[in-house]
Write a structure and sequence with these properties.
The chain is globular, with a radius of gyration of 14 Å. Helix content is 31%, strand content 24%. The chain contains 4 helices and 7 strands. With 146 residues, it is α/β, with parallel strands linked by helices. The structure holds zinc ion (ZN). Zinc ion binds next to loops.
Length: 146
């Protein structure tokens, strides 16, 4: 693995931090808000925060596009939580409420929910509509971010 610092976007204040790869696994804190950069939970993002994460993060960003009224989305939520605990700190997991971020969902042509999408260096590399279990989410994300 490279020793060049990685750009890691804080899930709380969305500031870009520079973290050495060797420090990723040692619970790094945000230099600005001093909260943990990895919490084991997906970060809830609005459109502005989403653009910061996808545009600046040098970690793959796994997005769950969901909505509160969607039954399969609510069923998948604990699976996505469990996947976050397994995939962090190699992958950043985030959730986008498509009811609130309608413009963002339209920009990315989200036609059904839940939809998982994986972004690497600002580019979408894979997309999977439909609910998945935690093990399948982890497998799918690793297969496409390696
Ligand atoms: Zn922060």
């Amino acid at each position: 693995m490279s020793t060049e610092p990685l750009h890691i976007v804080c899930p709380h204040c969305h500031t870009t931090n520079r973290i050495a790869p060797a420090d990723l696994g040692h619970a790094p804190d945000c230099g600005k808000c001093h909260r943990p950069l990895f919490t084991g939970h997906p970060a809830e993002l609005d459109e502005a925060a989403f653009d910061k994460h996808v545009g600046r993060s040098q970690l793959p960003v796994l997005v769950d596009f969901w909505a509160p009224w969607c039954g399969p989305c609510r069923m998948m939520a604990p699976q996505f939580e469990a996947a976050a605990r397994q995939l962090e700190p190699q992958v950043r997991l985030v959730k986008v409420n498509t009811e609130e971020a309608q413009n963002l969902a339209a920009r990315h042509h989200i036609r059904s929910i839940p939809t998982l999408a994986l972004f690497v260096n600002g580019r979408e590399v894979a997309r999977q509509p439909g609910a998945m279990g935690a093990a399948d989410i982890v497998r799918w994300a690793r297969a496409h971010s390696a």
